[in-house]
User: What shape does this take?
Amino acid sequence: MTDISSARHLHIGAFIFPRMDQIDFTGPFEVLSQVPNSTFHVIGKSKEPIRDINGLILTPEEILSEAPQLDVLVVPGGYGQQDLMDDEVVLSFLRKQAAGAEYVFSVCTGALVCGAAGLLRNVRSTTHWASFDLLPYFGAIPVDSRVVVDGRHVSAAGVTAGIDGALTVAALLRGDFAAQQIQLMIEYAPDPAFHSGTPKTAPTEVLKAAREQGREILAARLETAIRVARRLEIAI
Assistant: This one.
């Protein structure tokens, strides 16, 4: 992978929000905060602490207007993504940052937020398996892969795929060697106790239970996706 000149200082930043899934942010943060000659910005609508969907408290360091132009914009997902889909303040921030960024990196249902901002038209993208079929509502080209790179847009599938995506971004920024050093330092060598991490490998009963657990949020996301598609004048 071609790396950006290591002489140029990079600004990498993530937008965080209430009821997000923290590992969509903290996984990539663990990787991207170690990119050589860079600063990582943690950005929110305010500097008030926020709680992720399971109660972990995170604190933004900068508000939207304080963020510099980012070289990499990280957009996490999670349940709170729903509240951003019509938030024009946030969507405008994403559009403005995306226009000047080297890469826009969405994790999990962060792809849907990017879609609501109009950033996925004709873009190859992935997202969490349970919301994968919503991508066409935003004009995206769905690709069933853990990490997808399409020009300036990098997307990672569900939750922990954000670490894989972040290593991909690190390699794009500083080369494979730097990314592999980071991988080694965080000892990222997955060897899961089970192999239920995708619908393709999960036992039927486990998949059925997971779908039932997410039934309400999935129905809400579909309703929102239909509304956003109308707003963006995307025919489905």
Summary: The helical segments are 22-32, 88-100, 110-116, 161-174, 176-185, 204-213, 215-231. The longest helix spans residues 215-231. The chain has seven helices and eleven strands.
